[in-house]
Amino acid sequence: MSKRNILILKAILHVVCIAPFFWLIRFYTSGALELDPDPVAYITHFTGNWALWILLASLAITPLRRLSPRFAWLIRFRRLIGLYAFFYASLHLATYVFLFSGYDLPAVLTSMRQGHPGRAVAEWKMVWPTIWDDVLKRRFIQVGFLAWLILLALAVTSPAFIMRAMGGKRWQGLHRLVYLAAFAAVIHYWWLVKTGVRTPWKVTAVLVILLLARTVYTAGKRFRKSRSVLQTTKD
Ligand code: HEM
After folding, report:
1. Secondary structure (3-state) at 104
2. Most informative mutation of 24, 132, 138, 192 for ligand 1 (most atoms within 8 A of CB)
């Protein structure tokens, strides 16, 4: 694929990935969000779902690329998609901290406009014990937080100069944790839904297929390697 086409595709991908965010902003500014019975839950679910689906899309790049050498260019989009997953996961976390936990964001914004930024810290001091309590007591929060921390580590180490500084092998080892992040995010989803609710089945099915594709590929590679070693010792 030519450099120009890669650039065009990257621009399209940016538009596709940022579209849900602008859609949400529009939904809020139009007043439509307020008509929802629970606007904060709506934003939490919206950002959580986009984070997870985009994360799964970034995981799909490698198996798709392996289908044929003609798809090698797909790798050029993996970092971009992964960073958008982190972006939505961070919005999701921010929703939890600043809207879900009782942090009075409108009051903080009003105080800031009036030149009293201290309210932001005062509110944080008020809500952080509740957040900490949640982290300690609710396992779905713990596993969600683990997923976010992994995505943070991957986002921070994603630039090429950090990859060079870390060395390819160490970098790759760290970036394999993306599977653990996806697994943790799916578990997070299962643990937060009520018993008997099966909504996370779609993301689970996609993750299982992606993990199977990876296992089959690795097993095939090992098999081919051992066969070629056997062949050379025979010769
Ligand atoms: C940073 C730590 C995280 C916290 C504190 C957190 C918190 C939450 C909360 C409070 C909910 C709503 C629970 C309810 O409805 O009662 C939720 C839902 C959800 N979260 Fe997270 N989350 C975190 C990380 C993540 C990450 C990293 C992902 C995905 C990559 C994710 C994906 C989801 C999904 C898919 C839902 C359910 C959406 C739905 O029901 O439609 N979360 N999360």
Report:
1. coil
2. 192
- pTM, 2 dp: 0.94
Q: Are 45 and 111 in contact (CB under 8 A)?
A: no
pLDDT digits (tens, 9 = 90+) for 13-59: 999 999 999 999 999 999 999 999 999 999 999 999 999 999 999 99
Q: What is the distance in A from the centroid of ligand 1 to the CA of 115?
A: 34
Hey, where are the domains in the chain? 3-100+138-234
What CA–CA distance (Å, rounded) separates 68 from 61?
12
Distance between CA atoms of 144 and 134, rounded to whole angstroms? Answer: 12
In this structure, which amino acid lies at residue 133? D
Q: Using an 8 Å Cβ cutoff, are 108 and 119 in contact? A: yes
Q: Which atom of ligand 1 is nearest to the CA of 49?
A: 35
Other CB atoms within 10 A of residue 157 CB = 15
What's the 74 CA to ligand 1 centre distance in angstroms?
Answer: 29
Would you say the CB of residue 214 lies under 6 angstroms from ligand 1?
A: no
